[in-house]
């Protein structure tokens, strides 16, 4: 099989950053399924892992968003059989999806939406799992309690990114008033099209922006941008007994006592936690992806794929990493699989 990856960390403008090599097709055992990958997408985790690649001479395959067809199943698999069309985000501790065939645990895989092609379907798994877990697991929003959530507010910092794009929709689905941050005309239009009730500019102080729209405090905050940049401001604008979740690492030490008087909570969301630690509830990712597939097929949720880079090649992958690192990507960047 063909696989695209790298041998050592390098800046995104490095010529020959990624290489295509031939490898043996792995064998499915246990609860693993072998997927013929037909669509992939990129996420910030890809360039973060690339930048941190150890200089050990080993070939590293990135990619944690995929859709494809089950080729073979391990002896303990009960959820799938060869020929099934699936989607998943995978496991950051294992080889990624920038390859023709990939092994993945069945418990973090689900049938893909019938209404989407493989590349479009690949745009959603990682960001959907991240947004879903942040809202409904970490911040404990009841997605089925629209009446109880009416009047409550969710602020999505970085609304036009991959996670923000799906979080806006999930927040609206739960009955929340959703405020998204965006700063360019095209990103403002994007988040409005996804259902944001209000849009504020994250280039300005968020407290001033919120006061200008008559909402000085918010009940929930999902930060998809720099935690270090926004921590103190989030502590200021969160409502008493509110909840904050972030998906980005903090490089600095922050004063969590800023949250004490408000009895506010702060949590991290990392969608690879379940697969990384083989938690007893790993199968929850299978369930939530299956639910989201139904919502996509019903037209309740919109796909967030925004730009296709065609067939996956070393050069098209490098260009996608460059666009992601620029911070100018809107929605998700997708690819067809590696050509035979």
The gist of it:
Keywords: Cytoplasm, Metal-binding, NADP, Oxidoreductase, RNA-binding, Zinc. The chain is built from 11 helices and 15 strands.
Describe this entry's structure for a reader:
The protein is α/β, with parallel strands linked by helices and about 350 residues long. The protein folds into 2 domains: about 1-125 and about 280-335, Medium-chain alcohol dehydrogenases, catalytic domain (Quinone Oxidoreductase, Chain A, domain 1); about 130-270, NAD(P)-binding Rossmann-like Domain (Rossmann fold), CATH 3.40.50. Helices cover about 30% and strands about 25% of the residues. The protein has helices spanning about 45-50, 120, 125-140, 145-150, 160-175, 185-195, 205-210, 225-235, 275, 285-295, 315-325; strands at about 1-5, 20, 30-40, 65-75, 85-90, 100-105, 110, 155, 175-180, 200, 220-225, 240-245, 265-270, 305-310, 330-335. The strands form 3 sheets. Strands 3, 4, 5, 6, 7, 14 and 15 form a 7-stranded mixed beta sheet that branches. α3 (about 125-140) crosses α5 and α3 (about 125-140) crosses α10. It is globular, with a radius of gyration of 20 Å. The mean pLDDT is about 95.
